[in-house]
Specification:
two-stranded antiparallel sheet, globular, mainly alpha, three-stranded antiparallel sheet
């Protein structure tokens, strides 16, 4: 297949800047490729490519494509290797995108250009190179404010939305890299900083930022929450550096390449991922396999013995698969049994791994436990994503998934059910395990947020007065609400 017409057109009317020539490197492009003069990204292959530059030739840029090219049609994108799996032509990457006026350059494309320049600047500083040629186009005040925020990255009130704005939409890259450095993991595991940076950039790029909720900011928020849990006394005294590395990587990649729809939607539309993973933990398996693909593509752990790399991949998968909400009761019952019998031994590697799984599950759905100003924003975003799915189901004349019908549900009703049947049971047990100030703070916020949503849903309190119908409703809602609400969020 001829690919030349898909390559971006790069202006070469001036020498490559010295700060670019200071090292060899690569720029990943996908939806951001139009920064360099390419056609609209919807007309391009959705597989990443790379642009390499060499200090020996100041006018040459070498372009390569990386595997598995996808050709986009007008109704969606279709991988060349489709096999026998039926697939409904829905373009998930544009499911939540807004229409753009013709001829205008979206602000996000411009921000991505600034972001790349910041990556160049930060990589030089991390390598200790002198800052001889400052990039005056960058707003150093923003960099300084982001750095100040990272000094308080362990605070439960950390505003990930503000941090994302200060980093020009690169919150996941900056926050995760900072945490890996802060824990000393880069030095301890002898990781190449350029490979780490490239891996994180590719991870961030593989999140669909058109999704209102399942995007790179959510991944950054979960990673920050995971950091808070890793600092809890019981974990801080017991976890090894290997455990911490796994926990941070799992948090950063736990929703990688999330399509913005839930597992039941993929199953009933005969999506090839549902067939590939046999309708079992479809999204979680895809997130894990996508993370492994990027680990191998960047060769982040290529310097380690092969068995160690495989162990990292397997345990990373075990953590990500634990976020499957359909297995919520299984993990919660096991956790409750351990606490009842008081037999959790954090000196045991398997017990530490189980606690990491529970910590990641908590971090994944901790939004209702954040301060109201943050929690409310997340609630609005996840409900917007639900309702978008419902609109697509209406358009395709499919049965509308529970909680996805904007005419039958409100943000308040969705959140009250989610808090009652999913969040409260999990965080009550976590507080039994780690009875600290943070745990009590989270439960306090949860109670206040639930009360705030209740005031916005007066009919909920009125319907509860019907004593005859309540038992039936309460017996049905835990499973239906927990599964449907959690499945898109996991």
């Amino acid at each position: 297949m001829e690919l030349c017409y898909q390559l971006p057109v790069l202006p070469l009317d001036r020498p490559v800047p010295k700060h670019v020539l200071s090292r060899r490197g690569a720029i990943s492009f996908s939806s951001s490729s139009s920064l360099f003069g390419a056609p609209d990204p919807r007309q391009l292959s959705q597989r990443r490519g790379a642009i390499s530059y060499d200090s020996s030739d100041q006018t040459a840029l070498y372009i390569r494509m990386l595997g598995d090219v996808r050709v986009r049609s007008q109704v969606g994108f279709e991988p060349e290797r489709r096999g026998s799996h039926p697939y409904l032509g829905v373009d998930f990457r544009t499911l939540h995108s807004r229409a753009e006026s013709a001829g205008s350059i979206p602000a996000r494309r411009i921000r991505r250009l600034f972001s790349f320049q910041r990556h160049l600047l930060s990589s030089r500083l991390l390598r200790g190179a002198p800052h001889l040629n400052p990039l005056h186009i960058l707003d150093e005040d923003y960099c300084g404010q982001a750095k100040c925020m990272l000094e308080k990255v362990g605070s439960w009130n950390f505003d990930i939305f503000l941090f994302d704005r200060l980093t020009n939409g690169n919150s996941l890259v900056f926050l995760t890299f900072h945490l890996l450095s802060q824990y000393g993991l880069i030095e301890l595991f002898q990781l190449d900083m350029v490979k780490v940076r490239r891996f994180l950039v590719l991870v961030q790029e593989d999140y669909h930022n058109q999704n209102p909720y399942h995007n790179a900011v959510h991944a950054a928020d979960v990673t920050q929450a995971m950091h808070c849990y890793l600092r809890e006394p019981k974990l801080a005294q017991s976890l090894t550096s290997f455990d911490i590395l796994l926990g941070l990587l799992a948090a950063a990649t736990h929703d990688l390449d999330h399509p913005g729809v839930n597992q039941p939607f993929l199953i009933k539309t005969n999506h090839y991922l549902a067939a590939l993973y046999r309708n079992t933990s479809v999204l979680e398996n895809h997130h894990w396999r996508s993370a492994v693909g990027l680990l191998r593509e960047t060769e982040l752990f290529s310097h380690l013995p092969a068995e160690d790399s495989l162990s990292i991949e397997r345990q990373l998968g075990s953590l990500i698969l634990a976020t499957d909400i359909s297995r919520q009761n299984e993990y919660l019952s096991r956790f409750r049994t351990h606490l009842d019998e008081n037999d959790l031994n954090l000196g045991n590697a398997s017990h530490r791994h189980f606690v990491l799984q529970m910590a990641l599950k908590c971090a994944d759905i901790c939004n209702p436990c954040r301060p109201w100003e943050l929690s409310k924003q997340w609630s609005e975003k996840v409900t917007e994503e639900f309702f978008h799915q419902g609109d697509i189901e209406k358009k395709l004349k499919l049965e509308i998934s529970p909680l996805c019908d904007s005419e039958a549900n409100t943000i308040a009703s969705v959140q009250i059910g989610f808090m009652t049947y999913v969040v409260e049971p999990l965080f009550a047990e976590w507080a039994r395990f780690s009875d600290t100030r943070l745990s009590q703070t989270m439960l306090g916020h949860l109670g206040l947020n639930k009360a705030s949503w209740s005031t916005m849903e007066p009919e909920a309190s009125g319907s509860s007065e019907d004593g005859e119908s309540d038992p039936a409703r309460s017996s049905e809602e835990p499973s239906s609400r927990a599964l449907t609400q959690g499945s898109p969020e996991s």
